[in-house]
Fold:
Amino acid sequence: MKTTPECEIVTTRIIKAPRKLVYKAWTDPEHLKNWWGPKGFTNTFNTFDLRVGGQWSFIMHGPDMGNYTNECTFIAIREPELLVWNHQSKPIFQMEVTFDEISTNETNVTFKQKFGTAEECNKIRSFAPEKNEENMDRLEEELKIMH
Structure:
């Protein structure tokens, strides 16, 4: 999906862990369900079929209230460097995650939420960057357990 910066929310972090392990945290549902989402969220995964055309269906449970249904379809997978999926429940966007090896124990993770219009992107821009950082914090905690 081609977009412009006003249609994207980008989160990048250098993670102190090998690329292969970081990729596993994103692709093994037993680990992914432990850290996916902002602080305080939990997940129920209904389907996690990691293949091009495969479905990822899950419910995020908010810490205060609310259950958020998520329906996704994987559209590109290149282990251990790339994951792309279409998020088909609202908000509608494409998620592109890259894993760039900096050294044997450092990985630069970039995730880009790409929206069809700047208007759609702006609906969540006020809170998504902060929540994405919480998501990355939780990823780092899960990686400590995975070593």
